[in-house]
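Session log. Operator J.P. requested a structure for one protein chain; no other inputs attached. Running the standard single-chain path with token output.
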Amino acid sequence: MRIFAKRFYGFDPLTRPVVAFGKEGNRDALITASSPGDLIVYVGTQGEPTVEAERGRLLGIAEFARVAVDARDLIDPATLRPFDLNPDGSLAWPKGLPILRAWRFQEPRLKLLDILREQLTYEATVRAVELDEVDTRAVLALPREEAVVPAHPVIERLTRLNDALGHGRPTTGPVPVIWTGVVSRDVGSEAWTYAMRFGRRNVWKVGHAQDTAVRLAQLNLHVPYEELGEKWELKLRQRWPDSVQAYAMEQRVFGSMTTYRTEGERLRCTEAQMQAGWTAALVA
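Structure written below.
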């Protein structure tokens, strides 16, 4: 289990059961970096609109689903405050991940530097940053009590799904789900299971996407190709009528190649081994 941290205006999982971001890229960065069961700790911002008693303090911690949603679908419009909205009426933090479970730190709420060894960087204002092992243990040792998360059908469904997946294993990528809210993908549309290789190395990434070209571009965005002379290349892909079936094949590949797993959704194996695992997943 890992813990990420982000500065927020407060912590109220009952009316705001969503980890919210201003930009899609900042939200998706947390999806990519996290695994099922990971947590995010809320730290009060240093100024308004955070109430003075919560500024710079550890407020609470939450388990989140790695599924992109529109924050408005989980927030009651009647609870929106002036600073939640842009001048045009749009939500200031529209890109979200549903909160599945939440806990409040008990009083007195401690200042960040009473627990963490260093102040959070500015980056933690716009996106979530991962805590190291020492700070993670310190946060988990804090006394806390479970907070109420609303009985929302989306949250209930994702909680059951998260429990079924289990915790503490390498990430297998965001899970496709079907619900009535607005998500970043339509699971009923055509999708692909893919295998990408990093240059000529025996490093592979397996996943599913509705547009493999876009996914490939995303993966290579932060690869210093000018220095390495290598980047991710699409080597294998299988078309499916929807994301659910594409995800199922992805899981079959991981299941048949457990001994080759490394970090995240990556495997270390030869091309022949990858081809054998891929073929096995096709006929399973």
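Operator note: Residues 3-165 form a domain with the ph1033 like fold fold (CATH 3.10.590).
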